[in-house]
User: What shape does this take?
Amino acid sequence: MASNVIQLPPRPRQDTAEPEPLAFYVRVGRNDHAELLELMASGERGICGLVIEAQNLTRHRELMAETTRQGFHLVLNPKTQPMALVGGHSPTLAALPWGLDRHHRPIDFEGDEGKSRAAQIVEMAVDNKFSQILGPTHLLTGPNDTWLRHDIDMMVWTAEQIKASTAEIDLIYPLGVALDVLRNRAERQALVAALADAPCDAIWLKIENFGDDASGDKTTAYIDACRDFHERGVPVVGDHVGGLPGLGALAFGAVGGIAHGVTMLQNFSASGWRRPRTPSQGGGPVRRVYLPSLDILLKPEVAQALLTSSQRVRARCGCRDTHCCPHGVSDMISRPARHALYQRAREIEMLSGTPQSIRAAHYLDERVRRVSDDVASIAGLSSLTPELRDRFRKKQGGVARFRQAMAHLAQLSTPETVAVVPARRRTGG
Assistant: This one.
């Protein structure tokens, strides 16, 4: 008896493949390797890649090997941006192959000297199995900055060195400018036009005076400005961006990924790089505790005081995800790095899992509205110290205005373009 079942051919791969998830890159600080190794060992897959500073290769050797083995992107940061400013230059950076005993000047990136520095950066990337390089660019004052033409030349020479090496390395253009420059349409379009001459596989926007503490006005301006960079057809990533502004840029399709540090480097200011260095007072930056429901990072002692101020605060703001913090609040305080990275990865995954057509509305309802409501609830508690009460009342007003600005943006016409999302690394090493 003949079968009446007709076997259909399999659907083409491109029809069944899932879209790339929104990207989350972590900028690795000098002392972040242990927490990141622990996070990887737990099976975390919400991270797209790690950015390693060139002066820390030896210290992060084990982390770099594990990053490559697990198939995450490994991104080399050559640190050329701080190296060109009097306060950013340091003896440690001077010791890099492309360093000098003074801060860099444009003449150091001309002709054979520039080509030599490009070759040294690519050699370090190849020897250490990096999959991506932040190109050797510099902070700009605008489209007429002397550095811009040198940066474009350096991108060309770096791309040539990558091609000659036959290594599979993506070249990223890190564009560093002030928000005022980005908001100026004429200056922004001049930068976009100039970048057309620079070979790159992605553009990372590192915008001074913007980040996790940005107002609604700044965030809507940032989202609008990012869209001009879509015409290049390569992924656009918001660098040094976290919090509601970073998630908002993802939700509205302005960027395809964000990058920031471990509870730090979630906004950007170069003011310290522009001032002469002063002797270190010791201590270093303190790891902060992330409270997702309030969209805030607090010093451990402040977080402890808040979370133990009442059962109501503990229930509303304490971590109840046992995969993240099995012991709740105590783990939030004692393991703030793991908690912050895990929660950020889940926030980005939630946006990735929402269709682009309703992503902005979902972000407004599930993140912005809830944060606004929770901050208002906490701000009204009598159990808070006067300092915390003042802080949250101020934040309450800021979040309310942020919510209004984002809601207004969502009511405007649907954007014509959406940022390309960075592709995940396809193979381990």
